């Protein structure tokens, strides 16, 4: 108990900066009207909720969210669902910073530049340590344990890493370490990856999670700002800090507590759909139902979900959902939903058949529709008798179809 209280107090020295300005172009059309961190996930969450929940559960209570691309939806979500959790009178806060152009007239040109352009905020807060996070990954991690590791090693910078098979390394930024987990090299998507000492079958991949001594990283950011570079932490700042000999790799400890560690960048339509479909499986890889690691979000005031017309089952009219997530406000009125995720306030009408699909808030499905392997964004009405996901050629003529054959209907689209 005393050790935990000391750790929680120590985390007061950490300022978290969440980079949440990404366009998420590979997630189009879901990111036409919103930044990637604001994309809904798992029915009632947004992608950024998982990073924010990690912060709260790790007792990181000074949080700055750096936004840029189409941030209205994200700003609204944070204001309604998160800002009230923390007490400014105790020095706790979550607030967003859009591009200020304080230094010059540029927008953010990289992850390091996004932090550098907000250097006045960091200097005003004057935190001893800075935690740099991405707002578009799904995982559970206790940042306090990374902080303990950082102090134990006497590091000026620590990189969170996850062990991956060598055969997958060419898709990641690979961190090279010695036997003491000291970082001695960075390799971006290498064809011949360097493996973990003593483990020739695995490599350390960077998770894009960095903990720095503030003074040391500020000096590097200032120096980098005057160079012609990508102004990126992974490509520029960390390689420059290697010569100090005080960069270390902290292996990811998964609070998800499953056999395989879970860390996902749902950066494409197909990977996004697959991650949602995992949630409706009998034993999902990612556990939403963990009382010890609560996941928070903006909770709308919706009535309970409702399923009706069971009395007319013999006529084929049965309101039912199987192996699915169904959020508040949904009404399944004489239709069938299976292996699907329904966000709040979705209406399924009679004789509808929905399979392996994601339906976002305020979607309405008219009678006699058949829908399979589809993602339907918010505020879409699907007219009665519409068939989606059963004829690939017809789908491509009317809708956006992913490489994996998923039909995607943008927010507010009109279907004729």
From TrEMBL:
GO terms for molecular function: ATP binding; glucose-1-phosphate adenylyltransferase activity. Its EC number is 2.7.7.27. Pathway: Glycan biosynthesis; glycogen biosynthesis. Keywords: ATP-binding, Carbohydrate metabolism, Glycogen biosynthesis, Glycogen metabolism, Nucleotide-binding, Nucleotidyltransferase, Transferase. It holds the Pfam family NTP_transferase. The record marks 68, 107 as: Could play a key role in the communication between the regulatory and the substrate sites. Residues 303-409 form the Glucose-1-phosphate adenylyltransferase/Bifunctional protein GlmU-like C-terminal hexapeptide domain. CDD domains: ADP_Glucose_PP, LbH_G1P_AT_C. It catalyses: alpha-D-glucose 1-phosphate + ATP + H(+) = ADP-alpha-D-glucose + diphosphate. Involved in the biosynthesis of ADP-glucose, a building block required for the elongation reactions to produce glycogen. Catalyzes the reaction between ATP and alpha-D-glucose 1-phosphate (G1P) to produce pyrophosphate and ADP-Glc. This is Glucose-1-phosphate adenylyltransferase. It comes from Candidatus Sulfobium mesophilum. The lineage of its organism: Bacteria, Pseudomonadati, Nitrospirota, Nitrospiria, Nitrospirales.
